[in-house]
Design a protein that fits this description.
binds calcium ion, alpha+beta, 10 helices, 2 domains
Length: 426
């Protein structure tokens, strides 16, 4: 069920694209993530490419016509992905190809990147148990985790149309809010705008309506992983969420990174699934699989940074707000996919499943302002001297991720960024 390690993961492998051999870089020859691009300022049709060092390799040079999305490639399935990965690895590592393919490289600085998928449907899960506990504690101090948490991967259907690619401005939402002591709600700009540190799972081949996905086969349906920031308006959320869950508080923008890091590229960074606490129930049989428990987790460092307008003016570096790790996800990628399909719900190539906010157990690893500032009560001081309880207009939020493991080449995800713009008049 898991992609296997092969020569494409060899840490000694180098590329004839020099910048790909920088050990600090995100895109060495062992990564090979897919995206959709065109040359900046051109009227070219957007097309598929692979990130290599500070360049993009045009898939058209291998005779591949992806069209303006990667849905076709996602639908092709693991045997096709693996042979394409082997071909890319050989093409970009063997110096004998350098001359022939040098023209197929576009500098990233000169490229415009697009949302890599046409996303038909998007669900967001809640697999970060520390986030679930922290958020739950604010509402229910004595009983932060609802009893269903240990049994069912909690999720809701999100809004696919407002998923945007990194760099897209995020317009502060207007909405209804109601102070606890106010007799009636008001409508206006959200005052408690937040980010959520998540990853997105991009679905490859789908499943037919009515046909569940056995957990041993779940990863065959996952093309790869992206960064994902599920922007959230906490004040709108608090008023609107009962009894049907999040709605407009989470459908004004969700930022995705442009590069899809494949499950093949992530294979060296597998780890055991989250270790449940003593006395916590075991997953029900359809979510239980020995191999998935043994190696269905992933060690992926997850970081969120903030840079205010004033910090940009003063040329201060972005401040790191959070450093967590995907190994803190309570449910594995395979469990989430299997659960989504368990009722017979059909997934389609390009669908997106969000992990939920992946906070860790300590202060440095909290994946939202809600947790970092205890709901706004303990604001953060920025290097510019400004205070932040929640996000202000002009703030840029920058998400990054990296996989590091002894004996393997480190790989990165690039960035998912967004600058907050003021709310329009309502
Ligand atoms: Ca979320």
């Amino acid at each position: 069920m898991q992609p296997k390690l092969d020569m494409t993961h060899d840490p000694k492998l180098k590329s004839w694209v020099d910048s790909a051999n920088d050990p600090q870089g995100d895109f060495p020859i062992q990564n090979l993530p897919f995206g959709i691009f065109r040359e900046k300022g051109s009227k070219q049709a957007p097309r598929g490419g692979v990130a290599i060092g500070d360049k993009i390799f045009d898939l058209a040079a291998l005779g591949m016509k992806t069209g303006p999305t990667l849905n076709g490639l996602a639908a092709a399935g693991r045997p096709a992905w693996s042979s394409l990965r082997a071909l890319l690895s050989e093409t970009l590592s063997n110096p004998k190809h350098a001359k022939k393919f040098a023209k197929a490289l576009v500098p990233m600085k000169k490229a415009e990147l697009f949302l890599p998928m046409a996303i038909g449907d998007y669900s967001d899960f809640y697999t970060g148990i520390y986030h679930a506990e922290n958020a739950g504690r604010m509402f229910r101090p004595d009983n932060p985790l609802l009893p269903n948490y240990h049994w069912v991967p909690i999720g809701y259907h999100g809004r696919a149309s407002s998923v945007v690619v990194s760099g897209t401005p995020v317009i502060r939402p207007n909405g209804q809010t109601k102070a606890p002591d106010a007799p009636a709600p008001v409508v206006g700009p959200s005052k408690r705008l937040d980010f959520e540190l998540e990853l997105g799972y991009v679905i490859g081949p789908g499943n037919k309506l009515g046909k569940p996905v056995p957990i041993a086969k779940a990863l065959d349906h996952v093309f790869g992983v992206t960064l994902f920031n599920d922007w959230s308006a906490r004040d709108l959320q608090a008023w609107e969420y009962q009894p049907l869950g999040p709605f407009l508080a989470k459908s004004f923008a969700s930022t995705m990174s442009p590069w899809i890091v494949t499950m093949e590229a992530l294979a060296p960074f597998r780890c055991a699934a989250f270790k449940r606490a003593e006395g916590a129930p075991a997953p029900l049989p359809y979510l239980a699989n020995a191999a998935d428990q043994r190696e269905g987790g992933y060690e992926i460092e997850m970081e969120m940074y903030l840079k205010s307008a004033k910090m940009r003016e003063q040329k201060l570096p972005a401040m790191r707000l959070a450093r967590s790790n995907f190994r803190h996800a309570y449910w594995t990628v395979a469990q989430v996919v299997t659960h989504q399909a368990s009722s017979g719900c059909n997934m389609q190539p390009g669908d997106l499943l969000g992990s939920g906010t992946i906070s860790g157990p300590d202060r440095e690893s909290l994946g939202s302002m809600l947790e970092l500032t205890l709901g706004g009560k303990t604001p953060i001081t920025l290097p510019s001297g400004e205070m932040r309880a929640f996000l202000e207009d002009g703030d840029e939020v920058i998400q990054r991720s990296r996989c590091v493991r002894e004996g393997y080449a480190s790989i990165g995800f690039g960035e998912a960024t967004g600058v907050i713009k003021p709310a329009p008049k309502i």
